[in-house]
Amino acid sequence: MLRTLKVLKEELSKLDIPLWVEVVEKRKQVPERIMGLLERWGVRHLYSNMEYEVDELRREGKMVRLCADRGVAMEVVHDTCVVPPGRLKSGSGNQYAVYSPWFRTWVAHVHDNPELLEILEPPSRNPQGTREVFGPLFDCQIPDHVEGKTLPSEEQTRFRALYPAGEHEAMKRLEMFCEEKVGSYREKRNLPGTPGTSNLSVHFAAGTLSARTAVRYARDRNNTKKLNGGNEGIQTWISEVAWRDFYKHVLVNWPYVCMHKPYKPEYSNIEWSYNADHFEAWTQGKTGFPLVDAAMRQILHTGYCHNRCRMVVASFLSKDLLIDWRMGERYFMEHLIDGDFASNNGGWGFAASVGVDPQPYFRIFNPLLQSEKFDPDGEYIRKWIPELAGVQAKAIHDPYGRGAEALARKAGYPEPIVEHSGARERALTAYKRGIANG
Ligand code: FAD
């Protein structure tokens, strides 16, 4: 974020537009701090981007009242989603809680409202003399770190190389993806060992790429020039970007999901395990389930892992370990470079069967089968678990169960911390009981 702000400051500076960054210790200080600045600068008009999470909406509500009291006009714009929340309703006038019919309506709505994909030109250069008038505002220094949240320098270097900041970088990545990979996206998007996805989530989360720009760019490369039909890779990719909109619509329609509550209230009474050793093993990639461990180590090292792996590790935590999904949700938000409340909450709701997904709770991923299916040659596992690099063929998915135990033990790779079929039975019983008491 801080690197992104620095790039933005440089870009705006070329147009003689200042960027001022304030760091506040507590979120609730934000409204008063902004009001103080407005007063100091004699501002009469305030614009902001809408954030839909409950705390952010409360903050915005407070800002509206403060601005009204002090004679400042406030205007909030919807920029996060392609289709602003609240617009899409089913034939019976209800909010959608299922993705597929929602997506069909989303596509039709965007076709009928082409202005949703229009992109404003960047602002022009400020008139001469502005720099003199706003002089001190240009002096704002963007900090290199926020107190108490500094990364060790080795990590800073790594993250800088992995995630170059700024909207030009985002655009470059989008162009490259559409040029080289989107055509095979449909076939490859589920394979963590083959980098077939866009890796653009970091830019969506940082605000350096809008969903609108991404969807428009991909649509224009489709031979139908539409969101549907034509190139299957492009269609599929657009439908994935739409999931981001979907989960934001969900949290606007059911705001209690922002308050640590499951979308399905009847899932509120599951008796979770709070086994600290198991949770620790999960976070460190030491569960003895190679695909789970590879993904968790990738998150530790890069702040990212593939969508298929996110589903597998989230299902493993909430079902195999029966650990409260909210602990995983929070861990992801603390560690993901693309952390986005709505997508993360939606993903955890899906994996733990407590969210909008209509599948019942007894869909429980088998981590070994997932591994065989989506990382058949073990390429991904070998990359992230060097201890297992020498394990051959199918034993890579389950070294202790398939004859590679001597090698795994010698290399210090842990034995499985649970046995899947027993863990599955335990989860089914706990969910059933929880729902009965719900
Ligand atoms: P691509 O496959 O190239 O997809 C393009 C874009 O579509 C993504 O960048 C993302 O913005 C959107 N997208 C794709 N799949 C999903 C999805 N299932 N839900 C919502 N948006 C999607 N995504 C986040 O951006 N932030 C999160 O904090 C986050 N947490 C997740 C937690 C769990 C448990 C799960 C199962 C999924 C989570 N996702 C999250 C969704 C998804 O895993 C990532 O968006 C995706 O892996 C990013 O990689 P990519 O940019 O290469 O995706």
TrEMBL record:
<dbReference type="GO" id="GO:0032922">
    <property type="term" value="P:circadian regulation of gene expression"/>
</dbReference>
<dbReference type="GO" id="GO:0003677">
    <property type="term" value="F:DNA binding"/>
</dbReference>
<dbReference type="Pfam" id="PF00875">
    <property type="entry name" value="DNA_photolyase"/>
</dbReference>
<feature type="binding site">
    <location>
        <position position="237"/>
    </location>
    <ligand>
        <name>FAD</name>
    </ligand>
</feature>
<dbReference type="InterPro" id="IPR006050">
    <property type="entry name" value="DNA_photolyase_N"/>
</dbReference>
<feature type="binding site">
    <location>
        <begin position="338"/>
        <end position="340"/>
    </location>
    <ligand>
        <name>FAD</name>
    </ligand>
</feature>
<dbReference type="Pfam" id="PF03441">
    <property type="entry name" value="FAD_binding_7"/>
</dbReference>
<feature type="site" description="Electron transfer via tryptophanyl radical">
    <location>
        <position position="272"/>
    </location>
</feature>
<dbReference type="GO" id="GO:0006950">
    <property type="term" value="P:response to stress"/>
</dbReference>
<dbReference type="GO" id="GO:0005634">
    <property type="term" value="C:nucleus"/>
</dbReference>
<dbReference type="GO" id="GO:0005737">
    <property type="term" value="C:cytoplasm"/>
</dbReference>
<dbReference type="GO" id="GO:0006139">
    <property type="term" value="P:nucleobase-containing compound metabolic process"/>
</dbReference>
<feature type="site" description="Electron transfer via tryptophanyl radical">
    <location>
        <position position="348"/>
    </location>
</feature>
<feature type="domain" description="Photolyase/cryptochrome alpha/beta">
    <location>
        <begin position="1"/>
        <end position="82"/>
    </location>
</feature>
<dbReference type="InterPro" id="IPR018394">
    <property type="entry name" value="DNA_photolyase_1_CS_C"/>
</dbReference>
<dbReference type="InterPro" id="IPR036134">
    <property type="entry name" value="Crypto/Photolyase_FAD-like_sf"/>
</dbReference>
<comment type="similarity">
    <text>Belongs to the DNA photolyase class-1 family.</text>
</comment>
<keyword id="KW-0285">Flavoprotein</keyword>
<feature type="binding site">
    <location>
        <begin position="197"/>
        <end position="201"/>
    </location>
    <ligand>
        <name>FAD</name>
    </ligand>
</feature>
<dbReference type="GO" id="GO:0043153">
    <property type="term" value="P:entrainment of circadian clock by photoperiod"/>
</dbReference>
<dbReference type="InterPro" id="IPR036155">
    <property type="entry name" value="Crypto/Photolyase_N_sf"/>
</dbReference>
<dbReference type="InterPro" id="IPR014729">
    <property type="entry name" value="Rossmann-like_a/b/a_fold"/>
</dbReference>
<dbReference type="InterPro" id="IPR002081">
    <property type="entry name" value="Cryptochrome/DNA_photolyase_1"/>
</dbReference>
<dbReference type="GO" id="GO:0071949">
    <property type="term" value="F:FAD binding"/>
</dbReference>
<feature type="binding site">
    <location>
        <position position="185"/>
    </location>
    <ligand>
        <name>FAD</name>
    </ligand>
</feature>
<keyword id="KW-0157">Chromophore</keyword>
<dbReference type="GO" id="GO:0003904">
    <property type="term" value="F:deoxyribodipyrimidine photo-lyase activity"/>
</dbReference>
<keyword id="KW-0274">FAD</keyword>
<dbReference type="InterPro" id="IPR005101">
    <property type="entry name" value="Cryptochr/Photolyase_FAD-bd"/>
</dbReference>
<feature type="binding site">
    <location>
        <begin position="240"/>
        <end position="247"/>
    </location>
    <ligand>
        <name>FAD</name>
    </ligand>
</feature>
<feature type="site" description="Electron transfer via tryptophanyl radical">
    <location>
        <position position="325"/>
    </location>
</feature>
<protein>
    <recommendedName>
        <fullName>Photolyase/cryptochrome alpha/beta domain-containing protein</fullName>
    </recommendedName>
</protein>
